[in-house]
Sequence to fold (947 residues):
Amino acid sequence: MSTTTPVPTRSAGLRNLLTRKGGNKQGHTTFVDRAALGVAGLMVLLALVGPYLAPMDPYAVDLAKSLTPPGSEHWMGTDANGRDILSRVLAGGRTTILATVAVIAVATVIGTLIGTAAALGGRIVDEILMRICDVGLSLPAIVVALGLAAAMGPSLQSAVIALAATWWPGYARLVRTLVRETRDAEFVESARVLGVSRTRLVLRHVLPNSLSALYVQTTLDVSAVMLVISGLSFVGVGAQVPASEWGAMIAASRDTAITAWWTVLFPGLAIALTAIAFNLVGDWLRVRTDPTLRTGGR
Amino acid sequence: MSGHPTQGTPLLRIQDLCVSYPTPDGLKEVVRGVDLSVSRGERVALVGESGSGKSVTARSVLRLDSEARTSGRVLIDGQDVLEMNSKEVRRVRGARAGLVFQDPLASLNPVKTVGWQITQPLRIRGMGRREARRRAVDLLGRLGVADPARRFDDYPHQFSGGMRQRVVIAIAVIAEPQVLIADEPTTALDVQVQAQVLELLGELAQEKDMAVLLITHDLGIVAGFAQRVAVMRDGKLVEEGDVDRVYASPRHPYTRALLDAVPRIGDQPGRRLGTAAATADPVSVSPEGEEL
Amino acid sequence: MLSFIAQRLGMMILVLAGLITVTFLMTQVLPGDPARAAAGRNATVEQVDAARERLGLDQPVHEQYVSYVSRVAQGDLGTSVFTQRPVIEDIAQVLPSSVELVLAAMLINVAVALPLGVVSAYRRGKGADLSARLVALLGAAVPVFWLGLILQAFLSARWGLFPLTGHLGFGSSVPTVTGMTTVDALLAGDPSTFGEAISHLVLPAITLAAAYIAVVTRTLRSTMIGALDADYITLARATGASEWRVVISHGLRNALVPTSTILGMQLGWMLGSTVLVESIFGRVGVGAYSVTAVLQNDLYAVIGAVLVIGVVFILANFVVDLLQLWLNPRLRKGKRRERAGADESAAEASDLAGERT
Fold:
């Protein structure tokens, strides 16, 4: 745009997120925040290169070494099939984290489309879409996802689709609120006066400015989604044995859990550590981006 | 700031009171050496703009801010509240000194009936339910609440602002304290209601021969209510004296400025209402200082 | 007040309709031949054809939908290909046991989270607060099923503090009356069996409760901080009330309004989470039933379980809405518009509803 109006650009939301300084006393970055950022970053890295870091083949069966306790050779021990658990945890991160990201990405896209449509589409559209969201939010996600995934045929793909299909209403509602707020903001008004088209207005000015709160919410949701997706794998509608997905690893080792605790301990710790890290990062982002966020203080 | 002749020994005596709060930048002193006394049956107004430390002074009498660091003495009937342990302070609160709060909307518990709240000062001191209720209904009627027996079981949100403030007053006086501190009791109310509430407060005080300390920023309501006035600024008293004397010939320029800011009957229409801060000292007072 | 009830009732019916539609969609996305799925893997051609006819699968979709709704309304959730019994009967048999587990977990949830949230808010920034926040952080991050396995491996198998699995010890039994082992043991007047039933219930209930404890502690902490900062707390102190009374009668009583909404929703969520817990501890219940059904590829049983859990979830939420009337007088007698606050708790509650576990 070649006008002189100070209209925020496409990346304003993201840029705000990365550069805005926390104004209140909780806004500064503590040691815990740094550690959480570090762990979360490490986990993302794991998703990218984890399989290459694995010291052994995560799928190599060696029955002679079945259920070896943690030791110098196998730091996290081996499972019933003699597979190195450390290698499986490193390799499994990719599956679990990518599945989580996929759920959130799909749910966010659907939620953003529906939320925007509800906010800008007039009263009737808004009413219908929001009632659908209410219904979606009023059903227990894990059970609906379980049924959907089972119906589609148990696989990680089914679990991801099923969970995304139950997860979007939360985002739709959030985006609707955010868009309604920015819709009435001054710079949008001035862009409208300048004759910017409606679609362009939405895509270039309204949405990008609504997004930073959405980024925060998605970060906070990582742990919840990860827990549900690994839970779905655990009950058998997600990743299938022998995949080295963390939840499926625990499921595969449930019969040996009593005698060989290490077979379930480490994959579970990996899930918990990632979940904690993302929760902390989400909280940190929330305070940083908007100390007065309505959902704040919880 | 010399002592004025008062009737009898003071019931409430504040001596060299200093209050400070811990902030990220260290301790911030809000009240800096205040001396004030109120005798039985006397009504004293403590006047100042917001941020002057007058509310903090009021709350310090009942030690309501756990974070505050206080020094000096606050004597109620000769006993120093600042020296008491927490159990002794609780015995003073509500029973020997009552406090009327500023915002009747926020200071009533939204999920309890007004009756429950009014009877608390009696109930926590062991009075039976029936007797407490009888007294509360009497008091509500006395305070001008219509059909008090039925209203007793209503919730705060079913009351108007003025009626809620009567409930707040009832809570403060039901246990018949000798000292009553009213912290901006009318600020949140409509102008017509303000006068009624003040009048009620005055009548009650007279009936029970209480010592009343009225905290306000509004010199306009002081004249008809108090006998003595103390003017506070930046944590210190700048002037104290009989209302008539202070109104007729204020000694401190700040008092004069405060008085000039009060609209009076007979004022020229269109005459600019200056704020005290702007007139007296345009530099040192923050913009929040102006509330008229 | 009546409009509030009518509104919630309308919402409940809408959600029920949504649930039935979603489960209908599940029957539609079945890969391959739905008639074959309904008839079971080893069914003969005649059996498959009979199932097709019975389910009206040769009809157009909208007619299938209508007949599906009418069948569900009559309690016909199909037949389990595994047990060869009507799904509704199977579930009716195991549901009480799940309810027992959920109630036990709720008891633990309230008993732990309430004190923790209150103390944490009251002693903000102190040691107790930090430990409460740690509990909240861990509880929200630990996978339920993993916690179950770990507790079982250490507390039961290794240290022998609790029985490993099941409802009762080997050889013990009680006549089934309600389907809840603890209640049945009491009805049978058998205290030692009752003790056994309780000891079998403890670990699964703790496992189920953990994540919810985290949420309640966090919610209560923040609402309690808000309540304790309110003016009416200062006023309560100014009347000479003891700190205990100030914190409980005034602070907690107010913080309970939004917290109770969360607790009520959790009843439904917990029933859903039994899916992850019951099978670990070898308990009978609707969660274990649906997991078995998934493993057996018994889709009508899975969908039936989803439907039943969903209905219980919706009913629980409705009951909680009604409970709000009792807890929040501003909903009951709305003579006067409130400046703010009246809608706050509702907004906050629906806000928190988004935070699913």
In short: Chain A touches chain C through 56 residues (CB under 8 Å). Chain A has one domain: 75-295. Chain A has ten helices and no strands.
